[in-house]
Design goal:
The longest helix is centred in the N-terminal third of the chain and has 35 residues. This protein has 107 residues and is mostly helical. It has one domain. 80% of the residues lie in helices and 0% in strands.
């Protein structure tokens, strides 16, 4: 039906926008993770403290790394969902994916 097609195109458009937003979020997290790394890459600065806990910079870097991993998993899942929708060979769904990707990158 016409309403079902409009809803499908709208959902694909939103999924494509979310994909682009997650891609930008991963770039921001990468920048923050790189800033959280110690300036010196000597053996002493990378070794864990003797007290048994991790230092604040190491813990922050690890949290950024875990966040990047989760963002990557969500990005891959969304990418495959959009790809499968486009492979339905429906021109309107294809245009919805292109428009969503464009709008997501623009925003």
């Amino acid at each position: 039906s016409r309403a079902g097609m409009v809803l499908s195109v709208l959902v694909i458009l939103l999924l494509s926008m979310l994909y682009e937003a997650i891609k930008m979020g991963k770039a921001v997290l990468l920048r923050r993770a790189l800033l959280a790394l110690p300036r010196s890459l000597s053996r002493e600065s990378l070794a864990e403290p003797e007290e048994g806990g991790t230092g604040p910079a190491q813990g922050r870097w690890f949290r950024y790394h875990i966040s990047q991993t989760l963002f990557h998993v969500v990005q891959v899942v969304l990418g495959y969902m959009v790809m499968l929708a486009v492979m339905s060979y429906n021109a309107w769904i294809f245009l919805g994916a292109i428009a969503g990707s464009t709008l997501g990158y623009f925003v």
